[in-house]
Amino acid sequence: MALKKYLKLKRGGYVTLIFLLSSMLIVIPLLAFTFGRVIKFNDLTSMLIRQKQEEIAVLTSVNESVEYLLTSGMYYILPDDALIDPSSSAELLIRENSEAMKEYTLSSEIYNMNYVISDDIDISDHVVMSDILNFPPSQRAVAGEKYFLIKTTIHKNKEPSYCKEIAVEITPSGTVYELWHREFVIY
Questions:
Q1: pLDDT digits (tens, 9 = 90+) for 19-41
Q2: CB 154, CB 57: distance < 8 Å
Q3: d(Cα 170, Cα 65) in Å, to the nearest integer?
Q4: Distance of CA 112 to the CA centre of its chain
C-alpha cells in the first residue's frame, strides 16, 4: 500500500515537473516577447511625445511671430510700390529669431510679401512676378493690407529638419487671416 502511494506521488511529481518545464518553455519566450513589445511601445510613446512638444514649439513660435507683426509696426517699412528683387531674401526678411531647445534649434523668420518688380526701365510700369524659390506670387496691397510669410524650422541633429510656412494677411484694422500653410521636411 505504501509502495502504491509512493509510486503515485512519484508519477505526480514527474507530471508536475514536466508541466513546469513545458510551461517555462512557453512562458519565458512569451514574457520576453511581451517585454520587447513594451520597450517598443515606450520608444514610440517617447517619440510621439517629442513630436507633440515640437508641434507646440512651432505653434508658439508662429503665434509670437504674428504678435510681433501686430505690435511692432516695423512691417510698414516697405511701401506698396517698392521695387524689390524677391530672389534676394535679405531684402524681404524683416525678422529672424533662433532659440536652442533640448535636442534641436527652433528658428523663425518673417518675410514681407508685399513686393512688385519692374521688368522695364520705366519704374512706373510695374509687373507682378513671383519668386520661384520660396515665395508665392506677390500681390500689391489694395486697401492697405500687408502680406507676410512666417517660416518656422526645427533644425535637428542627424535627422531631417521640419519646416512649416504660413502666409498671413494683416488688414489695416489689425485682423489676421491665414492665407495658406504648408509643411515639409528638409534633408
A1: 777 777 887 887 778 877 777 77
A2: yes
A3: 12
A4: 22
Q: What is the pTM of this model?
A: 0.66
**Whether the Cβ atoms of residue 98 and residue 117 lie closer than 8 Å to each other:** no
Look at the block and give the residue holding cell 517585454: 35
Q: 111-164, pLDDT tens digit by residue?
A: 887 765 544 444 444 444 555 455 666 555 567 778 888 999 999 888 888 899
What separation, in Å, do the N-terminal and C-terminal C-alpha atoms of the chain show?
A: 83
Nearest-10 Cα torsion for 30, 31, 32, 34: 90
Q: What is the DSSP string of the chain?
A: -HHHHHHHHHHHHHHHHHHHHHHHHHHHHHHHHHHHHHHHHHHHHHHHHHHHHHHHHHHHHHHHHHHHHHHH-GGGSS-TT-B--TT-HHHHEEEEEEEE-SSEEEEEEEEE---BB-SSS-TTS-B--B-TTT-PBP---SSS-EEEEEEEEEEETTS-EEEEEEEEEE-TT--EEEEEEEEEEE-
